[in-house]
Design a protein that fits this description.
globular; 292 residues; eight-stranded parallel β-barrel; TIM Barrel
């Protein structure tokens, strides 16, 4: 899976004022990512507010994105949730044209046991035509997929090829890297820890802040992959505060505000999310002035 090396971005889904999908802005965002050096794109990860989209809207976004990219960079589709049968059906119905892998978040809210998480991904792996990237984000799902479960899945299913890890546990990262199959890869799922994770052996990041700063994120990942950590530290430090501000009132409201400020889209999100408040907006704009 050379396609998922380096910097990937979990694309936001732009909306019009009436709540419909703003495909014109999505097209400009895709071009911006490619022009600024992003290695691959993730269409409808959780940052894309996927839970608020209808089945038909998801199909439209996936097709639009593939048609717009035209094979210029690899594409990953986000298909995940807490209803295993429904996710299996979505993956079976998915038009794989233009896509190289599926990113599937660990089941949320239900708080399944480790065996439940294993069986969920087993059901997906058995039917998927594309390789699977696991996604562990306990702060959102309410449950942690342990290193033991990740390794069990990696060893039992050859089409489970990677994990996007956002647990924040370096002991967990280290255990995965130590015991994983040779071709299974670790990806940072949290922008602020990309540098230290890549120093341990992760192959890159699936970024949120990369929506707004693709060149910085892609350069950071490249420098880390080349072992140039001193140079990478400068970018890492630049991005820390702006990334933190993006999550003060929830994702993707913060990064959408930055995109609005740089002329790509607006602040519109779908309920239950609302646009970020004026205090956070002011802090973001102030920090943007410090970046170069």
């Amino acid at each position: 899976m050379n396609e998922i090396q380096g910097a990937g971005v979990a694309l936001v889904t732009p909306f019009n004022a009436d709540g419909t999908i703003d495909f014109e802005t999505l097209g400009r965002l895709i071009e911006f990512q490619i022009e600024e050096g992003m290695n691959y794109l993730v269409s409808l990860g959780t940052t894309g507010e996927t839970a608020t989209l209808s089945t038909e809207e998801r199909k439209q976004v996936w097709k639009f994105t593939a048609d717009k990219v035209k094979g210029r960079v690899p594409l990953v589709a986000g298909i995940g949730g807490n209803n295993t049968m429904e996710i299996v059906q979505q993956i079976q119905d998915f038009d794989v044209k233009g896509y190289c892998a599926i990113l599937s978040v660990s089941p949320y809210y239900n708080k399944p046991t480790q065996e439940g998480i294993y069986q969920h991904y087993k059901a997906i792996a058995k039917i998927s035509k594309l390789p699977i990237i696991l996604y562990n984000v306990p702060g959102r799902t309410g449950s942690n997929m342990t290193a033991a479960t990740t390794l069990r899945l990696a060893k039992d299913f050859s089409n489970i090829v990677a994990i996007k890890e956002a647990s924040g546990s370096f002991s967990q990262f280290s255990e995965i890297l130590r015991d994983k199959p040779k071709d299974f890869v670790l990806i940072s799922g949290d922008d602020p820890v990309t540098l230290p994770m890549m120093a341990l052996g992760a192959v890159g990041v699936i970024s949120v802040i990369g929506n707004a700063y693709p060149k910085l994120v892609s350069t950071l990942a490249r420098l880390c992959s080349e072992g140039k950590y001193q140079e990478a530290r400068s970018i890492h430090s630049q991005l820390l505060t702006i990334t933190d501000l993006c999550f003060v009132e929830g994702n993707p409201g913060g990064v959408k505000h930055i995109l609005n400020q740089i002329g790509i889209g607006n602040d519109h999100v779908r309920l239950p999310l609302v646009p970020i408040g004026t205090v956070t907006q002011t802090a973001i704009v102030k920090e943007m002035g410090q970046l170069h």
